[in-house]
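Hi all, posting the design record for the shared folder.

TITLE: backbone redesign
STEP: 1 of 1
STRUCTURE INPUT:
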């Protein structure tokens, strides 16, 4: 049996880590603010649920964004946000793990991308938002070194473009001798 692709290892780790934080949210924390200034905890989890919900259609089925249409619009969390997360996380993981899935072309709103690159992008988003959620709910903010290093490698070539998207604050220069987590947070405009 061959070793799993490195991006699938990171994906499993990121899904598990974010899932642990979702399970740690107390009932009175869903409307709490997050480092993503426009989002509550519920909004943040909803964003990640939405991202993962797209994966089966885009990766497994080869669908376009237009073909999916508005079927994934709106509140995907419903009355059981934790259950919603678990369902989409499992489906996303399964879609990327199918034989040949990482070599497929994914049709995104901004153009085509290789599925392995799309998976890496989602892993990076999960990693950053795990920190956001951790801070919002008072959980342990220290993230695993391997995920952080992976995310820094993914973000570094695109850091200047992230601010232009309007979804990220301007990157900051990390302090001298900064650890890898501080470097990542500075790259994506977070204040560690």
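Okay, here is what came back for every position:
SEQUENCE:
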């Amino acid at each position: 049996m061959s070793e799993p692709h490195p991006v699938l290892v990171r994906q499993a780790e990121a899904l598990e880590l974010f899932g642990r934080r979702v399970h740690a949210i107390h009932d009175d924390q869903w409307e709490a603010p997050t480092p993503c200034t426009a989002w509550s905890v519920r909004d943040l989890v909803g964003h990640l649920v939405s991202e993962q919900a797209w994966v089966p259609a885009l990766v497994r089925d080869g669908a376009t964004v237009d073909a999916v249409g508005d079927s994934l619009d709106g509140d995907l969390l419903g009355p059981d946000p934790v259950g919603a997360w678990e369902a989409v996380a499992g489906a996303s993981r399964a879609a990327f793990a199918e034989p040949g899935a990482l070599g497929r072309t994914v049709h995104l709103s901004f153009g085509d991308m290789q599925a392995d690159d799309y998976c890496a992008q989602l892993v990076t988003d999960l990693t950053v938002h795990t920190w956001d959620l951790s801070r919002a709910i008072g959980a342990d903010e220290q993230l695993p070194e391997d995920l952080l290093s992976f995310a820094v490698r993914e973000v570094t070539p695109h850091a200047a473009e992230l601010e232009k998207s309007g979804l990220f604050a301007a990157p900051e220069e990390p302090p001298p001798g900064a650890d890898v987590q501080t470097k990542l947070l500075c790259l994506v405009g977070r204040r560690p």
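COMMENT: The chain has one domain: 6-143.
Let me know if anyone wants the other runs.
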